Amino acid sequence: MQIGVPLLYQQGACAITKSVVSTNWKAYGLQQSTGALPVGPLTILVHMSSVWVPFTSESKEALAHYPEIIKEIKLALQEAGRKLQTYVHKKNRIKNQLERANLFEKYIPEVADSLERLTGENKEKIIEKFNEMIKKEEIQNQIHEMESLKGEIDEEYIDKSQKENYEEDDLEDQE
Q: What value, to the nearest 5°, has the Cα angle with vertex 15 and ends 87 and 35?
């Protein structure tokens, strides 16, 4: 009778884990405690392809800590981090633009009413000019661009009028 012993996975013994932990993820917009893995909506996948992969043991559960391997993995992680940082900052910038536009749009009727009394201009014309100024169409186009990068829309940043526009566009596309 032969009894199998389960292999124990040693996460900290791997060069990939060491590279991920030693990368400064705070610089890329993620939270990270000292000596810990980054925290956030992130999955890190590292693939090493070679005719000779230097594992720490016969169980092939961890890569050996060779300085060249750690350096190259860290450089690849930093490159991915820069792309992540660009995406996160762009997403936040678009979110802030949309919030400002929604806030401004909320007060357009009151401001237009006051301007009508002060200048004598037609209120509808003033509202039309303000709506042109906020450039909400451009912001919506940026959201569509982010959607194509991510594959989905963050529902919390889209107001009801935009949802209706999406539904109308979908109905038109189906016809």
A: 65
